[in-house]
């Protein structure tokens, strides 16, 4: 069975896999068929944006060399599938660190670009794409493009956050951040409810490079909305060498039932809140424990059981957050679902250079649930409705099931990416959402023309 799956394990494995050499040959000779290709990195995407069930995925993991690094400027050039863990290990002795890291260091460089990942410091640094200086892109017309921030063709902007749909990313140059050490001076501040969190977070963002909150999604009554605000800065004195990025523990197989269920999570959340609350105040922590706490457990996604997990990440405008975030948490409780990773962060106002990107000013809430079939899908749809009604957006990079209408409401500029999409590249996500939207719009236009005797009598609106 193919190992080329999404991390959520809810979608079938990729049926056809190509090595880079074969895909590059097809692209350079102009013989790649429409919708037949999609680049695949390290398989850390939760949904189907990394899969192409009607074509092939291109396993890029053999293209993993660091090509150049300038310790004077912090510019690093690397091939598409260099992992962030490898970049950190290479540049740390010189006093550098990626300006933006997601919740795992085991993502590829091209994956970080294609998903325009964000981290705990969006209020300070924006998205990963904001630090990409140049990239090399191979398209199905046989051309190899060297794209920079100032490129006028639009391909650079379309590729940032473009989900791998503009062509095959071969390499990229990224500007790193200078840091005094890898260690983090962490501060944990318990909050008794979400109103208290919202009162604290702006000052925490102003004072710290990093800030993120964990909330106890299952707490009710007087404990409802309790959580921990975790902030930090790079320590002035500490480690200048990356630790081993290997897995310490492993889940050897998929458990027959989800271990991360509500009966387990309620006491776990209580114990976690109590233990972390005792560690309040500033203390030094290694960077892996601060940024990548789950990376030490190989295949931890298997703990969600035989049907995998769904993750729901939303962003809510600032003016709606105090009302909408509690509503999202309550909806999950009312549906009888418990979220193991419930993360709340504040996004700043730094725009991404990409055509479409998930982060925007407001608050982002991440929830994940074991897949229990129809009842879990019904909950996810309810969370979608609450988010869209508040003027928010649902993250497509982590999605495996959102309706086309939800995607269009979240990203009204999706047509701009479709206009730059390479015809040879397609994903299951894009086929499920944007392609369906385009097809429905064309059918509506044709029907209107037929009904009006060939004259367009009404403007066709489609999100």
From TrEMBL:
Entry coiled-coil feature ranges: none
The FAD-binding PCMH-type domain sits at 10-179
Pfam annotation, one family: FAD_binding_4
Sorted alphabetically, which InterPro entries does this protein's record hold?
FAD-bd_PCMH, FAD-bd_PCMH-like_sf, FAD-bd_PCMH_sub2, Oxid_FAD_bind_N
Residues passing through the membrane, by range: 153-174
Q: Which UniProt keywords are present, listed alphabetically?
A: FAD, Flavoprotein, Membrane, Transmembrane, Transmembrane helix
Family listed: Belongs to the FAD-binding oxidoreductase/transferase type 4 family.
Protein name as catalogued: FAD-linked oxidase
Q: Which organism is it from?
A: Bradyrhizobium iriomotense
């Amino acid at each position: 069975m193919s190992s080329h799956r999404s991390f959520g394990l809810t979608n079938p494995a990729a049926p056809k896999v190509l090595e880079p050499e074969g895909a590059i040959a097809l692209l350079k000779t102009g013989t790649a068929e429409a919708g037949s290709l999609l680049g695949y990195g390290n398989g850390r995407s939760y949904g189907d944006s990394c899969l192409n069930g009607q074509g092939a995925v291109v396993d890029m993991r053999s293209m993993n060399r660091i090509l150049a690094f300038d310790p004077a400027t912090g510019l690093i050039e690397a091939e598409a599938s260099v992992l962030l863990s490898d970049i950190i290990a290479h540049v740390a002795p010189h006093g550098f660190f990626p300006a933006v890291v997601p919740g795992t260091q085991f993502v590829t460089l091209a994956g970080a670009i294609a998903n325009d990942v964000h981290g705990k410091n969006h209020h300070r640094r924006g998205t990963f794409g904001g630090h990409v200086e140049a990239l090399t892109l191979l398209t199905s017309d046989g051309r190899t493009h060297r794209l920079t921030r100032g490129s006028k063709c639009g391909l650079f902007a379309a590729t940032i956050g473009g989900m791998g749909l503009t062509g095959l990313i071969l390499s990229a140059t990224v500007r790193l951040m200078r840091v005094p050490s890898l260690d983090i001076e962490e501060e944990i501040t318990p909050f008794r409810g979400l109103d208290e969190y919202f009162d604290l977070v702006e000052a925490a963002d102003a004072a710290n490079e990093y800030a993120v909150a964990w909330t106890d999604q299952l707490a009710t009554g007087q404990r409802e909305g309790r959580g921990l605000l975790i902030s930090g800065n790079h320590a002035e004195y500490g480690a200048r060498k990356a630790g081993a990025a290997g897995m310490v523990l492993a889940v050897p197989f998929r458990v027959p039932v989800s271990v991360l269920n509500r009966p387990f999570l309620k006491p776990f959340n209580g114990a976690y809140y109590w233990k972390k609350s005792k560690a309040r105040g500033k203390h030094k922590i290694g960077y892996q424990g601060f940024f990548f706490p789950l990376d030490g457990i190989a295949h931890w996604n298997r703990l969600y059981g035989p049907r995998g997990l769904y993750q729901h990440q939303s962003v809510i405008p600032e003016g709606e957050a105090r009302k909408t975030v509690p509503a999202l948490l309550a909806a999950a409780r009312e549906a009888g679902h418990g979220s193991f990773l419930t993360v709340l962060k504040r996004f700043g106002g730094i725009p991404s250079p990409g055509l479409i990107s998930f982060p925007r000013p407001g608050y982002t809430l991440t929830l994940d649930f074991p897949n229990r079939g129809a009842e879990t899908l019904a909950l996810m749809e309810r969370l979608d409705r609450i988010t869209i009604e508040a003027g928010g957006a649902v993250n497509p990079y982590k999605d495996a099931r959102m309706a086309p209408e939800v995607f269009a409401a979240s990203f009204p500029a999706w047509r701009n990416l479709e206009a730059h999409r390479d015809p040879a590249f397609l994903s299951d996500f894009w086929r499920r959402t944007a392609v369906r939207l385009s097809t429905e719009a064309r059918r509506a236009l044709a029907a209107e023309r037929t009904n009006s005797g060939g004259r367009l009598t009404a403007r066709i609106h489609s999100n």
